[in-house]
Amino acid sequence: MVYRKSNLERVEVKPAETGHKKSSVLNKAEDLLRGTDLLSEYYSRGLDDVYVSFDLNNLVSDAVERFHGDTEQALKHLAQELHQVDQIIDKYDGDKESLIQILLDINNLYHWLPKSALIWVSVRLKVPLTQIYHIGSFYKAFSLVPQGKHLIQVCLGTACHVRGGERIIDRVRTVLGVSEGETTPDLRFTLEPVNCLGCCSLGPVMVVDGQFYGKMELDKVSEVLNKYE
User: Fold this and answer.
1) Which residues of 151-181 are buried (b: 16+ CB within 10 A; e: fewer)?
2) How many domains does the chain have?
3) Do 172 and 131 touch, CB atoms closer than 8 A?
4) DSSP secondary-structure letter at 151?
5) Domain limits at 89?
6) In sequence order, what DSSP letters do the residues of 171-184 get, joined into one string?
7) d(Cα 75, Cα 83) in Å, to the nearest integer?
8) pTM greater than the 0.90 cutoff
9) How far apart are CA 152 and CA 222, in angstroms?
10) Are the beta carbons of 56 and 47 closer than 8 angstroms?
11) In this structure, are 96 and 40 located in the same domain?
12) Among 46, 63, 129, 193, which residue's CB has the most CB atoms within a 10 Å radius?
């Protein structure tokens, strides 16, 4: 509410008519002040140290790459991820002797070992990142590439092969749009061929997350996969 100088008549001022430009200027000023505060804190905490900034840049660049350049979403996800990894590490009291178990828990949580998670484990446990990567690549229980929420295994052993196992995996490839060993873009499924599942009499066999589907038929592939969100 303002007064006109001519007759002191009170006039109602609509925010939509006069407030937008001023509001945007104030927001910019507030953002600049906030940015200055954050930069001040950044340097006061010694985050410009070459070793700290190296790990920080690696964390951020990995997250941004995974989110295809969406920095805002990448940083939000990164912060959430590091807090989750922190909880896993704290469960083992930050003991480097529990490194393999910590990595197993991380792999179970994300279905793979994200680079940012490994960097964080290295920082928290003071274990060289190269050592962590060596463990991650040595044991088959770990994956260094994204895996789907659901693992599909199709048997290509002799018994299943002669009963149409190859046609089953062809249909899975067509439905999902991936090849063997690949994961769908939405991280829903990973396709993995196996040589034998030990149930030859049920061939051809497809397994999803440990659930066996024996005597599979082509027209049942989509029906089975649609059960898994």
Assistant:
1) bbbbbbbebbeebbbeebbebbeebbebeee
2) 3
3) no
4) E
5) 50-138
6) HHHHHHT--TT-B-
7) 12
8) no
9) 12
10) yes
11) no
12) 63
Q: Are residues 56 and 131 in the same domain?
A: yes
Q: Count the Cβ atoms, other than its own, within 10 Å of residue 204.
A: 25
User: In which region does residue 46 sit, left (phi positive, over 0), alpha (psi from -120 to 50) or beta (all else)?
Assistant: left
| 157 & 217 share domain | yes
* Residues ≥6 apart with Cβ < 8 Å to 12: 1
pLDDT at 113: 95
Token reading at 127:
């274990």
Dig out the tokens for 110 from the structure.
């994300």
Cβ count within 10 A of residue 191? 21
> Could you tell me which residues are beta bridge partners of residue 3?
10
Q: What is the mean pLDDT of each run of 10 residues along the chain (229 residues)?
A: 42 50 66 76 68 74 77 84 94 95 94 92 93 93 89 92 93 93 90 90 92 94 91
Residue 201 identity (one-letter amino acid): S
What is the C-alpha separation between 222 and 165, in angstroms, rounded?
Answer: 15
Any domain includes 90: yes
